[in-house]
């Protein structure tokens, strides 16, 4: 069987890695380069596309025919893409629920078709290096990718001719590459991953040789590209101030081909300067012949870059705080912070991460290993920078591939669900089946019944989110399961949620009487994106008090409705058998409960909960003799049926 390779399909760069004789390594292309830019260019001639470095080289001169950073668009709906995100140098279109389309030479491509070109190149490079056909792969995705994004990534792999054995989360893969499975039991690690286009912070714990992800938080639209954009804006301003061309038409914010070419050149030098400033304190930015008679140059200092971009890096802090809170940990509980993603080479990133997590000392020069005499001086976690941050994810994917092939037997990686999943139940409440931050793969189920008599079907409305009311969560989809008519409370419908190893949700609903069942894969999670996840979690905290009040009211109301119906039926069944005074007492308690219910009559409104609860308790108390009488009558009827009394 073919070897399984590990692939880091990055926003900016992609890598392919494998394991040989127990040693993971990144496979280089025929020119010895290990990073392949995730860039594809289609020549006007209709020849095959240029991929990687070759495409990157023409990107500046043919910006409109060169696609880059398509990972930002993969698996997302047109309507979800903001105007700002559309500001790339190639034409991006997308409307409504359809996928994003990239139009080059009158041909429309989906982001997965473009990613497939990058994957095809990696496949070819691996085949040349390994001297055999390579048809199986493990591909990594950011932890915050939703179902649709994971599926689209898998499809990209298949379009490239791979059988995708597994989709794994990037930070989870990185922990393997850092060899953290060798740490002592119960060690806790944070993986800080800042790449070109995505940020993830994951907290892992080592338990009996198994990595468990305790929590994860991040943003699929935050990364080195944002720093580049900030620098481009800065340089464009400087160029204009120096009398150079402006790459944007002031009135409409539009650009012509020449302006696009200038913008591409500015972006290229901006990124190069940013990378240089990770090792140097000052660099010269040169843009000769922006127009035949204007050249531009600027001396940029590291401190100026830091001043320009600090707020972008600081945006990662809130995700670190949330991930720690979700894992119920403090930074001092962590043993190590590992750095992943090219952008973490920036000294300011390392400095800030070190400060936020209270790392006692920052030890890059020691390869991140805690050494000798000053060990006792440290209190915080160790900032481990011992691995190449660009390669860690691909190496981890290769290690996971080796595990799947039967090598490296003792390690297993587990990921978690970013948001709770459940279904809508009586009264419009969210019934959680798989809570947020559950380790995947995971399977969980619950039994449900009907609320009204003679119901012949049940609507399974699948929800994702952290709010108490169904309407405040995201709807992932709905389907109906039919069954035979029966009195309320009799049908038993088992609902099972299963999130597979790729993070894809399958929902099964089965009528236990007939065995009739439906299994639905939830593809419509396409709406979910990371900012929305953040918003959802924030809102759940913000509205926690109201939400809890609403849940209490709905639950009390359901109970009251049930009690009212049962009491009315009981009164009818015992008509003529009750003393008038007692009947009046029950009627009065009934009246008060009905009145208490009207206090919440506005749509979705909650009423006077205390009054409702008191009225419920009072009716419950008052109807005790009635319930006993009904029990006696039922018993009598049963005995009569059995012929014991006549
Ligand atoms: P990745 O997605 O991990 O390939 O990271 C790519 C991002 O890292 C891009 O935004 C690069 O500009 C950035 N990057 C790569 N090397 C460096 C460096 N030495 N210093 C700062 N940023 C870097």
- Classify the secondary structure makeup into a structural class: alpha+beta
Profile the largest sheet: 7 strands, mixed
Cα-atom radius of gyration:
31 Å
Measure the end-to-end span.
79 Å
Strand content: 25-35%
Largest sheet: spatial strand order: 19-18-13-14-15-20-23
**Ligand identities:** adenosine monophosphate
The percent range for helix content is 25-40%
What would you note in describing this structure?
The N and C termini lie far apart (79 Å). α8 links the parallel β18 (336-340) and β19. The protein has 646 residues and is α+β, with helices and mostly antiparallel strands. Residues 362-377 have low confidence and may be disordered. The radius of gyration is 31 Å and the shape is elongated. The protein is built from 14 helices and 29 strands. The longest helix has 30 residues, at 544-573. Residues 10-13, 195-196, 224-225, 271, 274-275, 278, 341-343, 345-346, 390 line the site of adenosine monophosphate. Residues 10-13, 195-196, 224-225, 271, 274-275, 278, 341-343, 345-346, 390 line the site of adenosine monophosphate (AMP).
């Amino acid at each position: 069987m073919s070897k399984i390779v590990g692939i880091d399909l990055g926003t900016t760069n992609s890598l392919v890695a494998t394991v040989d004789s127990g040693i993971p390594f990144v496979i280089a292309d025929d020119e010895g380069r290990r990073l392949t830019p995730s860039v594809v260019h289609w020549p006007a001639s209709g020849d095959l596309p240029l991929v990687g470095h070759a495409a990157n080289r023409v990107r500046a001169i043919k910006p409109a025919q060169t696609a880059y950073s398509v990972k930002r668009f993969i698996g997302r709906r047109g309507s979800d893409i903001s105007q700002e995100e559309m500001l790339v140098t190639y034409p991006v279109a997308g409307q409504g629920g359809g996928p994003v389309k990239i139009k080059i030479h009158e041909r429309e491509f989906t982001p997965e078709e473009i990613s497939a070109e990058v994957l095809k190149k990696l496949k070819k490079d691996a085949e040349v290096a390994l001297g055999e056909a390579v048809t199986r792969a493990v591909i990594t995705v950011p932890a915050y990718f939703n179902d649709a994004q994971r599926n689209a990534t898998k499809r990209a792999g298949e379009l490239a001719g791979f059988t995708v054995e597994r989709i794994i989360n990037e930070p989870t893969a990185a922990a393997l590459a850092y060899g953290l499975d060798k740490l002592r039991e119960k060690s806790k690690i944070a993986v800080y991953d800042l790449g070109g286009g995505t940020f993830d912070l994951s907290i892992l714990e080592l338990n009996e040789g198994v990595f468990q992800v305790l929590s994860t938080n991040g943003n699929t639209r935050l990364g080195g590209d944002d720093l580049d954009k900030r620098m481009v804006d800065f340089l464009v301003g400087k160029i204009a101030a120096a009398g150079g061309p402006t790459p944007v038409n002031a009135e409409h914010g539009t650009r012509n081909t020449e302006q696009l070419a200038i913008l591409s050149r500015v972006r290229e030098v901006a990124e190069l300067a940013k990378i240089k400033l990770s090792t140097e304190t000052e660099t010269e930015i040169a843009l000769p012949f922006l127009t035949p008679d204007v050249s531009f140059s600027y001396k940029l200092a590291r401190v100026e870059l830091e001043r320009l971009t600090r707020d972008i890096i600081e945006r990662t802090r809130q995700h670190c705080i949330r991930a720690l809170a979700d894992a119920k940990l403090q930074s001092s509980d962590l043993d190590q912070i590992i750095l992943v993603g090219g952008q973490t080479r920036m000294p300011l990133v390392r400095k800030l991460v070190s400060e936020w997590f209270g790392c006692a000392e920052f030890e890059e020069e020691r390869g991140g290993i805690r050494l000798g005499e000053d060990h006792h001086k440290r209190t915080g976690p160790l900032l481990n920078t011992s691995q190449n941050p660009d390669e860690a994810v691909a190496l981890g994917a290769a290690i996971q591939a080796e595990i799947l092939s039967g090598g490296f037997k003792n390690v297993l990686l587990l990921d978690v669900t970013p948001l709770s999943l459940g279904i809508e139940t009586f009264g419009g409440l969210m019934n959680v089946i798989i809570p947020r931050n559950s380790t995947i793969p995971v399977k969980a189920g619950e039994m449900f019944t009907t609320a009204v008599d003679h119901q012949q079907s049940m609507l399974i409305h699948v929800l994702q989110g952290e709010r108490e009311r169904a309407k405040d969560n995201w709807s992932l989809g709905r389907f109906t399961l039919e069954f035979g008519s029966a009195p309320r409370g009799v049908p038993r419908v088992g609902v099972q949620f299963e999130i597979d190893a790729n993070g894809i949700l399958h929902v099964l609903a089965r009528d236990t009487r007939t065995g009739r069942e439906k299994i639905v894969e939830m593809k419509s999670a396409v709406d979910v994106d990371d900012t929305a996840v953040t918003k959802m979690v924030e809102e759940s905290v913000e509205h926690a008090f109201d939400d809890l009040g609403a849940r209490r009211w709905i639950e009390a109301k359901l109970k009251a409705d049930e009690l009212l119906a049962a009491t009315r039926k009981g009164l009818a069944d015992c008509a003529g058998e009750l003393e008038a005074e007692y009947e009046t007492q029950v009627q009065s308690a009934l009246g008060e409960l009905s009145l208490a219910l009207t206090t919440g009559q506005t749509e979705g409104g909650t009423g006077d909960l205390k009054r409702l609860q008191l009225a419920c308790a009072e009716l419950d108390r008052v109807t005790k003799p009635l319930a006993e009488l009904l029990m006696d009558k039922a018993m009598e009827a049963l005995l009569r049926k059995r012929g014991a009394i006549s």
